[in-house]
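Bench notes, afternoon.
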Amino acid sequence: MNRIYNVLFILTVLLAFSCEKAEQKGAGDDVRIVWEEPKAVKYGKYTVTGGYPRVHRLNDGRLMLSYSVDNNAVAQFSKNDGETWGAPQIVMGHYDVERKPWGKARLTAAVPDFAQLSAKHPKRPGRIIYACNYRPRELTDKGTLGEKGWTTVAPYTISISVSDDNGASWTEKKHIYLSQIWSENKKVGCWEPFVLELPDGTVQIYFADETPYYGGTDSNKRDWHNISVIESKDGGDTWGQVRIVSQNSECRDGMPVVTIHNDMLLLAIESTDFKGQRLHPIVINNPITNNWSSIVGKGDPHRFEPFQVSLGSRIKYSGSPYIITTDNYIVYSYQISDWYTPPANLSQSQQLALCKQNNEEQHATLEVQVCPKSEVDDKGYFRTMRSPSRPLKVDQTTGKQNALWNSLCDLGDDKVMVISQYNGKVYTVKGTVEKK
């Protein structure tokens, strides 16, 4: 019976793969993104090394790029829509702390994001708010970094620096949210800030957080992971109390990115529906007037999959989402690893273990889908993202090539830019969304 069950399982896996690919190929052939050739971000003759890159257009028309490198969070600027870039500048650098008798830690500046406030902001017009995630790592007596999170010495934080002169200078870092110092050294805290300005000038920073659960008395909740938001009513000078936006019990919500469409907040996250399912991108919607007045939990109708073909799977992984709007479209990206199908002569648990080992982020590439804004209903729902495309060539079978922690930027006139950590370097790809 076990042999029959295993054969049926692998046939189900193969059928799922073939059906998904067939459906994706034929779905939504009315719209597409036409991609240009990838372009390395350079300073002089050197291609920039870095991770978690983001680009936004500033009020003066320039593009600003953020990413992390050498444990620092940096910025570069372009006056010609990303054809060339100026010199990298450190906005938020790493620093060292000691807490006796536990030891020393280096606080590394990671996963930066930023936004420039509108020219009509009531308090701080044109201010750039740059956020990063400081993460503690062991610092040995030899000055080298260990692999563990060093949370007996310092907590994970969400921190900001601001510029009131269009990025020419930056203030000293300011911690606006601190996780906790734990009794053990773990990589547990808060993660991945995203900065957004609401139409009334309220500044929001969204982030993922484990803090409310890990240190509690309920061991079943130690791995829970929510999306939180913290707000400023004065352009980033002061910040209010943290509120929980979404929480999906034992299934983790992570990596928030938010866009606004028709007075509706559209929050892209990676999540799962049940234990054993791989991370995949979804959307959570909420009217701006509601502004997350209640926590969006498991099974809430505000949570939905926006794709014609579901990305939920036990087999393939698809995480790190990013969502933007252009003049006429919603564009959604994620990193996906779906190349591996397990052999049929193994048990179900062995097959799933191999899928998880191989269909993981080190094998992931960038995929992008699109749908017209006209298909978003008046309650903020759309389930017609389609025409998946992969603008960066990746051999997923090796694990040596990948396109990770990707993001999108609206360039105007339904033109978009993808920004990617492509094989460890920062690359951009421009594309145009068009009807076929």
